[in-house]
Design goal:
With 78 residues, the chain is an alpha+beta fold. Helices cover 44% and strands 26% of the residues. It has 3 helices and 3 strands, in the order αββααβ. A 3-stranded mixed beta sheet has the order 1-2-3. Helix 1 packs antiparallel against helix 3. The radius of gyration is 12 Å and the shape is globular.
Length: 78
């Protein structure tokens, strides 16, 4: 599973409006940026209390990207 699909799967599982989840991947030479956009009322569910959910998603991404030998950064857009 690619990093983009992983983020999309997790986000769709967390939110009330899965149709409004949008994931975009911007590739660089050594770093990929994954931009996650959700409905405004679902933003808190993706970030979690004190950012715990977002941190957990970033941890999973780090584990997957280490295997691919490429750094991945998750940005949650408002």
């Amino acid at each position: 599973m690619q990093q983009k699909e992983l983020v999309e799967f997790i986000a769709r599982s967390l939110v009330d409006k899965p149709d409004e989840v949008a994931v975009r991947e911007v590739e660089g030479e050594q770093t990929a940026v994954i931009e996650l956009s959700v409905a405004k009322e679902d933003l808190g569910k993706v970030i979690g209390k004190q950012g715990r959910t977002a941190r957990a998603i970033r941890t999973l991404l780090g584990a997957v990207s280490a295997k691919a030998k490429k750094r991945v950064v998750l940005e949650i857009l408002e």
